[in-house]
Amino acid sequence: MRLLVTGGCGFIGSAFVHMAIDRGAEVVNLDKLTYAGDPANVADVADHPAYSFLHADIADAASVRDAVEGADAVVNFAAESHVDRSILDPAEFIRTDVLGTAVLLEAAREAGVDRFVQVSTDEVYGSITSGAFRETDPINPSSPYSASKAGGELQALAWHRTYGLDVVVTRGSNTFGPRQYPEKLIPLFVTNALDEIALPVYGDGMQVRDWIYVDDHCEGIWTAMADGEAGQIYNLGGGYEAPNIEITRRILDLTGRDEGLIKHVQDRPGHDRRYALDTTRLRALGWEPARDFPGALAETVRWYVARREWWEPIKSGEYRAYYERQYADRIADS
Ligand code: NAD
Ligand code: TYD
Predict the structure, then answer these.
(1) Residue 334 pLDDT > 90, yes or no?
(2) Is 122 a catalytic residue?
(3) How far is CA 140 from CA 114, 242, 269, in A?
(4) Domain 2-175+212-236 has CATH 3.40.190.10
């Protein structure tokens, strides 16, 4: 099987590239190498005969057309993926997550690929007070990020209905594990705790997320790719629901740091209070998460402890400017 994986130098995409190579697939990894993309994330497969890399933008039709040639399936991870950055600068989110997805869909249609997997997010539903979202529920995104992801998956589903392209959409929940860029909650708080600097908890910290380990997320995408029904959407959640403050305390415990590092700061605008997913549909295809949250979190923390050389260079340069913009006033005002 030949796969075109986009965004394979990012967090989840790189884990999926490893999984696909292990399973005997040929992989073309197309990645723009934004601030979030790092070839080091796939360095150990770089010389594998079944792997090739193309430095390109999913919104660039000519590059995408070449890359898709001969692929059996396209798995689209490429995206701007961080809510806080989308609030600061939404334009790039719309360009990559909506327009880029449409360019990729068109190239897949022209090349006649057998399957297009759009990796989407539970955030397209917006917030839910009780119960869990099902795939038939309406979408109601809150942030420029989630609205852009909703735009991308609507394009994908339209390419299915209008042109008959074989599309499946996965709506994954909050993912964690090794190689996650330290702007998202878990890697940010783990690395801040290790450096003994403040953990900026937005608002009261009682916002709830459904957490999934990265390999379980990839396994779910693989299941949807292999066995999903064309035109269908699959919720993909780990089922471990916790408020942010619980995650924060676990991280402090695992890193041996004091709760004095917790700083409650000004809340994120439009902050969704709770996400929760009903995953019956994907489970009916035989998928279920393999990892328990406390064990997987402990393993993840150990990875960041052992791999300072991975995250320390990231937390300088461009990251510093972003961190100042996002957090300096919040921390000063708290
Ligand atoms: P990430 O930010 O770590 O990686 C994104 C990758 O896409 C990077 O390698 C980047 O260089 C690449 N990229 C960005 N713009 C591109 C463009 N225009 N063309 C080609 N490549 C481009 O993201 P992630 O956390 O690995 O998320 C991967 C996908 O999964 C995204 O689509 C995201 O919306 C979705 N998702 C993420 C989570 C999560 O918790 N991280 C949860 C559910 C869904
Ligand atoms: P994040 O990892 O950005 O994922 P998402 O916004 O896509 O769910 O944030 C997870 C939760 O953690 C979310 O409720 C916002 C919160 N959060 C903080 O409280 N402080 C922070 O510095 C960050 C990055 C997130």
Answers:
(1) no
(2) yes
(3) 30, 22, 16
(4) no
